[in-house]
Design goal:
mainly alpha; 2 helices
Length: about 210
């Protein structure tokens, strides 16, 4: 091999080395740019991670607050259930009292019917006595034309009959007074029933004030 050929080989090798150096430099610059871009992306990723951490901390705080509220709501729900149970017991008691009042009202109505049945015959007896008295007075007036002894006897009978009428009138007034008192007692019981019913209606509408 001549010196010229060796020189050409050296030049070729130098050219090859030069190209390799250029390629290496270009690759180094590209790698440096990529590293810079990766660094920027990593910084952005770190920022996002920091923001996510902050958001996660806030979310945890909200979750803790929600947990506290859930506990409070659970306590309130338990209290509400307890009040509902108490209201159910009171409603059952009220229904029991209403049933008893209904039974008493039925009994009262039965006694009223019996009293009405008793009063009607008394009124009929009074009418009969009044008719008999009118007839007796008419007969007595006819007898006034007879002897004085018959007049005195008739007068005595009349007095006895008047006493009987007064006695019947007293009995009738007493029974009438008892009937009026019974009506007042029954009316008071019915008014209390109405107040209890109004209380139940108000209770269903949200008004907790019991009837007096």
């Amino acid at each position: 091999m001549t010196n010229a050929q060796r020189l050409d080989n050296v030049e070729d090798e130098l050219e090859t080395v030069k190209q390799l150096l250029v390629s290496t430099a270009s690759y180094g610059e590209s790698t440096s740019r990529r590293l810079d871009q990766l660094t920027i992306k990593q910084d952005r990723t770190q920022v996002h991670l920091d923001q996510l951490t902050i958001k996660q901390d806030r979310t945890q705080v909200h979750l803790d607050q929600i947990g506290v509220r859930l506990d409070e709501l659970t306590i309130k729900q338990d209290r509400t259930q307890s009040h509902l149970d108490q209201l159910t017991i009171k409603q059952d008691r009220t229904q029991f009292h209403l049933d008893q009042l209904t039974i008493k009202q039925d009994r009262t109505q039965f006694h009223l019917d019996q009293l009405g049945t008793r009063v009607d015959p008394i009124g009929g007896n009074v009418d009969q006595v009044s008719d008999k008295l009118d007839s007796f007075i008419t007969h007595t007036q006819r007898l006034f034309t007879k002897t004085g002894s018959e007049i005195e006897e008739t007068k005595a009978r009349t007095e006895r009959l008047e006493a009987l009428m007064i006695r019947l009138d007293r009995n009738y007034e007493e029974q009438k007074s008892q009937f009026q008192e019974f009506k007042l007692t029954t009316g008071a019981a019915l008014e209390r029933i109405d107040r209890v019913l109004d209380y139940l209606l108000r209770q269903q509408g949200g008004n907790p004030n019991p009837p007096s």
